[in-house]
Amino acid sequence: MSSRNASFHDGVVAGALLAPLKFLFALSLASFGILLAAWIVDWVFVFKVWPDGVARLKSILAADLGRGIELAAWQGGVPGTVTGTANFLYGLVFRFTGIHDMGMRFAEGAALSIPDTIVRNFYIANREAIEVAMIGSQLLGVRLATLAMTVPLLLLVYIVGAMDGLTQRAIRRACGGRESGSLYHRAKHLQVALTVVAVLTGLLWPALPDIRWIGLPLTVVLGILSRLQWAYYKKHL
Fold this sequence. Notes:
By secondary structure, the chain is mainly alpha-helical. The chain has two domains: 31-149, no CATH class; 150-237, no CATH class. 82% of the residues lie in helices and 0% in strands. α1 (4-49) crosses α6 and α3 runs antiparallel to α6.
């Protein structure tokens, strides 16, 4: 019979070994969910809202790509990062699965087998929806890269806000000021909620005029909330 300590040790080791796999599975599932949600929103806008449909989505992709490359050049980074992210996401979804090559083969007009003919008929019947998904995947990659370029500024503002908040906390504690655990927790949870909402809005809403109008206001708000959070931190550091 194994001891309780041995069972606990085995459980900890198994949990440590499985943790990366669980994280990768959760990350893959979340990424697929975001991609699917982006396709659905793009389909709604293209087929139900915009009169010019696919052409409008293509123009949005071109505009966002230009702004992303401009932002990368302004930061001194590699402009190819934006296009690389878009091409990587497109390749992962459509080249790796063979959908891109399938469309190219069907466009050649060569003789096809009976199964390929069935698939070709289905592909042609849903050609516009597939094209929207292709463009939407590239748009998602462009916006993801653009948002990622705002992370250094966001971290800098957060650290500055946290340092100022801790300074105010020390002054208040020295002067006998009050502490508030509720303000600390509300500010902390509000940061998470605002970040999730802002990121999902930037990634999923195709009609957004400029993705940078998501990153910059979010940075300012998170800086203010981080100052409030650490200013009312109750525990000893």
